[in-house]
Amino acid sequence: MAETMMAYPELRHPYEVTPIHPPGSTTVLHQGRAVTLAETGDGDGLLIRPEDLPRVNGFELKPEGACREGLCIPMNDDLLISRDDGQWFDLAAFADLTGQPYVADRPAGVWSFAEVPATREPMMADAMAPDFAVTDRQGNRVATADLKGKKALIVTWSSW
Amino acid sequence: MPVWQRVYEEINDPDFVLICAAQDTGGEAVAGPIFDAANPTYVQVVDEDHVISSAFNFVNVPSAAWIDETGRIVRIDEGTYAAIHEIGDGEEKFVFGNDVYAQAVKDWVANGARSRFAQSTATVSGNIRKHSFDQRKADAAFRLANLFRAHGWQAKAEQYWEMARSLNPDSINFIRQNLTLTEEGSAGETFRKVVMDYANQGKDYYRPLDLEEA
Hints:
heterodimer; A: mainly beta; 4-stranded mixed sheet; 32% strand; globular; B: 6 strands; 45% helix
């Protein structure tokens, strides 16, 4: 095989340097989505407004806890913080509570979260397809829920 | 990709969905022409962040999941080739793939749960890779690196790509994706050493394809 097979060194860093978000903002990555938050709270964790939670990771706060579809995770006192400027939800504390891995680059204001483990239990325990959402080349959203009622074969491949 | 298009056309079932997802940080520039050459009518995804691999705990390509009408996975994580492929000539010739997997897919689409290739929940659950906390953290690091790359922040992109590879050294995807974006390419000396190390450690480069198991 040729040593240079499937080599695209020119594509390693093809982009001009651009800001990731407006000054003072925070970007949160989750399940292939990037959400920029104009407002976060000061502190060791990642304090976001509770109303931002659904667009960040699909969870919303209910009396029984942080819920997504049929799953509700009970809250503890570390998660919801009341201050003079209103309520904050600590996304990092939520990740710690649920065993959700994350990587934060605080100087850049970017946090990247893996999936909440409890949301993957249906796959790990009962072989149910995991939640995913991607965009196809025609710009259509393709998600697990769209496959119900059909047989689906999902094949990964690569140019390499 | 042309082979999967042919399989898709032969199946020709409106209740069958074929999604081919390129795990390519190089994006449309590298995956697009390959898709286009196949004139595909199946669902085409250029998955720069390897979201699909992360969702199904895949560590190599090609890999696949079969999902039935109820959303249950009935096969997962095998070297998913639709044909036998040859690269190079003479002593350098490399032969890989198989011509039986696509036949199994056709049988399943036609016969559903009665297909002998549809596996039980217990078998599928056993075949789903159990990723550690660090391996799942690697996925987060990889996506972070890709975001920095997309904004031209080279040093940080390299930092988090390296973190991803360190946290999940078993990911062939991460190793080869990185090599692809170097002069060496994805099939050079480093790749051959990775394959040899895998074999020496008793690891499967792909999970063995077992089409007799039901």
